[in-house]
Write the structure tokens for this entry.
Amino acid sequence: MSITPSERERRTTRVLRIVAFMMVTALVVTMALLGLIWQHNRQQSAPIDEKSSAASATPAAPVTLERSAAPQPDTSPEGKARRAVAAMSVEERVGQLVMAPLFAGSDPSTLADFISSRHVGSVLIIGNWTDGTASVRTATDALQSYASENNKLIMATDQEGGLVQHLTGPGFDTMPSAIEQGSMTTDQLRQSAAVWGGQLNQAGINVDLAPVMGTVTVDRASNAPIGALSRDFGLDANGTSEHGAAFVQGMRDAGVGAAVKHYPGLGAVTGNTDFTADGITDTTTTLDGAEIGAFHRVIADAQPAMVMMSLATYQAIDGSVPAAFSSAIIDGELRGKQGYQGVVISDSLSAAAVSGTPADQLGVRLVEAGGDLACIGANDYVAPILDGLNARAAADPAFAAKVTRSATRVMTLKYQPGLAK
């Protein structure tokens, strides 16, 4: 069969394409082989130190993402207090809000269960302790032994001078009355208070429930709680604030806290709140008056450890309840307007002035109003006050939050001098 010219041309084209493909493939393979041979020869001829350097090269460190620094814990007393309280049970927090009494002649072991099992965090050394600093120190050391190593007790007493000096005997000076202290210069009073505070420190006392900051505005003899007992400085409001600050500072110089009392003042009532519910309504004290202003200046300038609330009723401020139960006075004025965020302690809740309130509600009403520490002057009130606080905290989350805030303020006070760790 004959082949046409067009068929011959197509066959020739296919042959040429095949030949071209084979030649390109051979060229690529040849170049690849030459590259391998060149690389092998280069490695064989490289200097010894270059090989060594390549072999010993340290691999690059892995890349890490930069992170922001972890937040550091707040090491202030308040920061430590918040963490400590967060780790407490409700019962432990409630215990920090109670100051139980130990009377002269009583065995410290009578409070052992309250401190170790019910977490009471403060003790009031009360009565006529006449055997001197060593005797009081024995009692305070025993009481502290019942407390946790990391959370020791606030140990308080009433050591004003004159008729109100609970601790006497060897090692304790006989303190002049407050009205005599008012005749000193402020420098003299500060120096004297530092001496008296040093004696308290030696006895294991870390808070003095003094000075009285009331300014007597009525006949002294008719003012049963203060003027008749010479418990005030005998000065006007300005002099009272200056001498009160000197007393607070002198105590601090000795390592002892002070509690100014009885806010907003007992200088205009006739009845003594410890013994009666009559004659304890103040009709003259106002929020912008000089008498309450004396407290405010000392709180701002001297920064006392505590403010003690009066059990009188103040008609021109909040005539419905005693000051210790008044949110208008504590949360509204003292904390809100004046900015005080320290410990607010009550006057003794076993006093006659509040005897109409059920015992298990006394601490509740104090904390509801913004107070922190229930001072108790009779042993049979301790358990009911603890029970009432615990019951209300268990039933009312809003109240439990107030208990937490109060416990934090008390623990902050403890961290400041190292009572808590």
The longest strand covers residues 257-263.
